[in-house]
Amino acid sequence: MKSKYLIFNSLVFVLILLAFQGIAQKSAFKKVDPHSKVKSMTEKHFLIDVNQEPGQQLVLSHYYENTFDSFGNRIKDLEYDAEGNLIKTYTYYNTGKQRNKLELTDENGKLIRTIEYVYDENGMLDYDQSYDGKGNPEKRFAYSYDDEGKVREDYSYFGTDFHMRFTYTYNYKGEVERNFRFDSASKLQEIRYYTYDTEGNVVSEKVTDDEGSLIETTTFQYVYDKKNNWVERTIHKDGKPIKLIRRTLVY
Question: Largest CB tally within 10 Å, which of 34, 92, 102, 243?
């Protein structure tokens, strides 16, 4: 089984939450980290106000300072508000290319959340479990795979209560084409359709209801550096630009 399907994104809480609501803590098809190894990265998030004059349309909302190990894994993310005040710290514990735990602390170093990752005998992520700052169980995601090691289904739970089920179909490149979302009664809630550019980054996400009626469309435009890592991403919601993300990468 290819190792790329073992690599997962734990920043659903921060980096892609606005664009991909409801995705599990493991995201097998969202490219967040640079694919070329970097030592560090600064990522600034701007809101776009198209009603302002040119040059004043970007409003910094927050930014991150990210550091990586020699395997390309994140080891620490620092989140700051627009004024430069530390808001949260994300600390990652890894073994080789495998992530074992994520700890989230507030500006005072107080523990907010922990996510633990448990693997099966084949090294595939079996489930991840989040806990609040006092150690009480929160959301849990469990995963099942196809014969190629791609996520076929994942299931979310709150405590012991089943919450949602997600299923996936893939294109010939192994990229997710469709994501079906079912509620706890196994009723289809919505379908999400994805398209990608040549670098494998999502360029469109279309959301429909269970009958195929369009709910919303999100599109993404990228600017790449010489190593084909994106350094700028503009997010459009239903054709309107709403957010710009700029990255500075140190190799």
Answer: 102
